[in-house]
Design a protein that fits this description.
- It is built from twelve helices and 13 strands.
- With 285 residues, the protein is α/β, with parallel strands linked by helices.
- The protein has two domains: 119 residues, Rossmann fold (3-Layer(aba) Sandwich); 125 residues, 2-Layer Sandwich (Hypothetical Protein Tm841, Chain: A,domain 3).
Amino acid sequence: MSKVRVVTDSTADIPAETRESLGIEMVPLKVHFGEEAYRDYLDIMPAEFYGKLREAKELPTTSQPSPVDFLNVYKRLLEEDPETEIISVHLSSSLSGTYQSAVLAKSLLEDQSNITIVDSKSASYGIGIIVEEMAKAARDGKSKEECLALYEPLRQEPRLYFLVDTLEYLHKGGRIGRASALVGSLLQVKPILSLDETGTIYSVDKVRGQRKALARIVDLFEQDLKGKSIQLTIVHADAREIAELASELIKERFDVTDTRYAMLGPVIGTHVGPGTIGIFAVPVS
């Protein structure tokens, strides 16, 4: 029986110990402070990154992996075992060229039949949950087809909302104009964002004040999930206290069977800024 291996990129925000225990391969994106380039989760970890970000005079930039970065991983896995089946799951193609780099890497191989590239149409733990569950299935001896069959339900079942603490970084990254950022900051407007079916970011609402914004997210979850029991994962950009407050508010109105916290990595953190949280609720059947 062929062995299935799962490859992802660093924007999945999967902790190193989880990747190691499940045999997940991670190809890093990069964050650039001036002339200095750091590989996401390898050369720079989230805690160090947010310290540098707060002190930086100019917003860092980010870059996707090259096709060669993916090619080297694919070749190594296939050299270790030529019968290996590879599933490579990546950041939404609407947000980055990472998926296209993986597709191009596959095209450079003489035999491409062992590799399947998947557009997660998601970000952060939205990718992470797909990758982790596929890797668990692979560990349990499931076939490539059985692992891939998990994709649609894992993409559609979780409900996701991001709460951005400040509009400053969206402005610096060119997502909104300076006037909107200034007015939003003065009025303490907190944007609530999500991802649509294509993996594109869209604005769900804008609420004044952090606690009111968190309460609005709980309302949205109630509309989406209608009181179902849920597993909760909250990723945060150096904002554990806000993440824990969000968890408390959700637990007041939901039966939460499991709660996990993780930090948003440097690449996504560059674009949303410190204080952002992402809340993923997965209904439990």
